[in-house]
Amino acid sequence: MKILVVNCGSSSIKYQLFEMPQRTILGKGFVERIGEAGASLSHTARGETVRRVVEAATHEQGLELVLRTLTEGAEKLLDRIDEITAVGHRVVHGADQFTGSVRITADVLAAIERESHLAPLHNPPNLAGIRASQRALPRAAQVACFDTAFHATLPPVAYTYALPHMLCEQFRIRRYGFHGTSHRYVSGRAAQLLGVSPESVNLITCHLGNGCSMAAVQRGRSVDTTMGLTPLEGLVMGTRTGDLDPAILFYLGDNGYDIATLNRICNTKSGLIGISGLSNDLRTLGEKAASGDARARLAIDVFCYRVKKYIGAYVAVLGTVDAVVWTGGIAENGWQIRAQCCAGLPQLGIALDEQRNAEVVGREGEIQAAGSRVKLLVIPTDEEGVIAADTYELVHDGLTSEQDILL
Known about the structure:
- By secondary structure, the chain is of the alpha/beta class.
- The chain contains 16 helices and 14 strands.
- The strands form two sheets. The protein has an eight-stranded mixed β-sheet, with helices on both faces.
- Helix 11 crosses helix 13 (335-342).
- It is globular.
């Protein structure tokens, strides 16, 4: 069975084509700058990558380019487009309606649209990708996989905000959490590497990329996570504030900043780029800090401090921790960042081996020192593989739409 996994951002489409159930990646790529001049497509298959400038004014045109790339030309992977049995879609916000992946029906689409106000930067392009796939592949099953689903197990003490209860009920305000597909994958993989069942270990999982989040995973279930009602809360990120005194926004509002501007500042002008004034890329900031740039150094220090603080908090939540797991582009490759986040934590049983840490870049590996009570694992995430597996399971088992919707 061939399954296409689609992840639509505001101006991009990432895709992978899988052969299931082997979970073999046949090809992958992305379309960037959708709706802009100079849109481009990058496609990798059989060990080779081709890149070209394209025209893609909409997500529908972007997906058409993807499907043509898969079925036409020298780099094609399919003879016919109907070889694709199903399409798995990443959907960021499922609120409290979806506790697992589901086959997409009209009711599911309507529910995703209703939750778009909770993730206005993410759910609308996710919906655009789903609708484009339905039009381009009318015979293929469509499946939605939600970032929020893994965190549906959070207890009330972790998801409740201290606002008037009436407001929380009326507007469904609570901690939902995100990056759930990544946290789910690496926590399961960590248990495999430790040779135990997921139900027998406690983990702190750190997904560090342009967007960052951490989770406390107790016996296979997420019991706390850093992101909240939206992906804005928690760690310092590439362009997002993370944790913030809400009175700062009232203060800026009193000084002439409207809600739309404050939203844009918090989501796209803050975080690493806000502190440094230079870049949201830690590689660039590392180079600048090494040459003496004080604000680049401060951005890195604040980033690592926030991660370290949450490690301590989640040790308190879990009581005992078997492993801290590092994943996402920054955590998988940034050995200097891992070292700074783990420095000075012997009282928590966390000790890093400097040489092992520097050697494990972009691959799985253990990086703890010999005397560390807590394992430190680097595990490259595989969100697309999880989406492909969920899609295969739902389509293969032939679940009905009524069974799929978990309301």
